[in-house]
Structures are given as C-alpha cells and as structure tokens.
Task: structure prediction
Amino acid sequence: MELRHLHYFIAVAEELHFSRAAARLHIAQPPLSQQIQNLEAELGVKLFERTKRQVQLTAAGQLFLEHSYQVLAQIEQAVQSAQRVGRGEVGQLVIGFVGGATYGIFPDILRTFRTRFPEVELVLYELTTIQQIQALRERRIEVGFGVRPLVEDSTLQFERIVQEPLMLVLPQIHPLASQSQVSLQAFAHEPFVLFPPRLGLGFYEQIISLCEASGFRPQIAQEAIQMQTIVGLVAAGFGVSLVPASVQMLHQPGVVYKSLTMPAPTVDLAVIWQCHNASPVLQAFLNVVREQASLKAEAVTDSQGNRVDGR
Result:
C-alpha cells in the first residue's frame, strides 16, 4: 500500500462519486477505479458498495476512513516535526560562557534566540575560555563564548563577535581616579588583581604583554576567576585591574573605570564551536549570534560612519 492509495480512497469516500473524486485528484476516472479495486484486493475487504446510481461506504470502509485520516494527520505531524528539527526550532543546546560576556552582547543573543526558538532548551555553564575549549573537545558543551587570544586547535572554529577596549578599573579613592584617561605605565608599581593563568591563559597573557610593552611586569596581589570578583577586590583596595569596557555595567560601588591613553588596547569576545558539528540548532544559534554582532557593530557607529567605541 502506498500513501497515494489513502489519498485516492479518502477522495472517493468524501465525494461518494468516482468521477467527481477523479476530477478532484486531477486523474482519469478508470485508473482511479482500478486503484481502489487494487486497495480492496490488498486489504481483503470491500470498502465501497457500488451501484449504477450511488456509491456508499461499507462498515469496513467507514472504519478504514477514520484510520486513514489519523494516518495522514500523523504523517503531516511527522513532516512538520522533521522540518522544525531541520530548521533548528526544537532540541537542546549546551552553551559555555565567560562571566564577562553577561555584561555585553551575550544576554541579547540569548533573549533573541529564546524568543524565536522557544522550544529549544538552552543549558548554560559559566566557564573560563580554557575550560570551554576542553569542554568542547570532550563534547560536554556545543558552543562557547570566550575571550581571545585563544589556543590553536584545528578541530575548533573561532569567530569574533565583538571587539571592545580594555579599561583600567581602580579604587574610587585612588589619586588618579579624577583623570579622564590614564597611562598604563603610571601603574607600574601598583598591585594588580588578575585572572589565574591556568584558567584565563589568553586574557592573562594579553594583560602581561600590555604591561611589559609599557615597561613593567605587573605585581599580582590577588587572583580571581570572575569579573565581578575582580572588580569587588579592586573596590576593597587589593589593587587595580584591566577589564573589558562592558564590565562597567556591573556598577560596583567604590570603583571607577578609566580609558587608557591611545592607542587603546582591545579584547575580543569570540564564539567557539566544533568544526564538524552540523547541528541545525547550533546553526540557528550561530545565525542569531552573527545578527546580534552586526547590530552591535551598527550601534557603535556614528552618523558619519566613524567608530565611536575607541577602535
């Protein structure tokens, strides 16, 4: 039995007239009659009582009609479900992210994706960039948001989302807190609060390189994993630190954020995923990421087309 046989049967059952059913199906009447006869022969029962004046469903035909409707409805549901899965509209996505991402574009990405794909379950894990890379290798997460520079890995795909300037965060009572801009060299003898290198290797090395380019190696007074912890320790007087500009949204009392003298150093937030992962849910998510990154880029461009974010 083929699916078309059900369509033929339903048309005749609803029209109770072979010629009208044939016209509805856009086929000739004799082939339709033959297909119904073949169906009856395959089932071993009569589906219709035929006379010269009318066509009526038998009891077996009536029951078969009810089940035929159910079968076609289930097939349609299966088709729609498969198409939705193919478009990435249902399923689950496991995401890793650095804490600092929550102060920038990351919440907008999540909000937009959840609005468009409400039946995709998002599972979130806050991880450092190094932890995300390891989790991707072990397939414990499917996509990550980390800080560049990143390690080289041919199995992973890296794509920059946003680039933002690094800013110096210092206690509000610091002697240089009133300046509009500060030089990194002015903090050569200050204690720093930084990520531990074992967990924030790329970002840690970037800060060390910036300080060395300014003629000193920072004195690390305290290590912390989370951005909010770093800023909180700065407020408590443990030292100063370098953070992405978006961290200003944390609004921690007792600290001020200062732009560094030009050229301002920048840090990249990148999305990371496995090269071979062809999951439709992942692809749908990456499309939203790119869309939001484009909107973010447009938002920091003035009417003359110039960047206004220090880049």
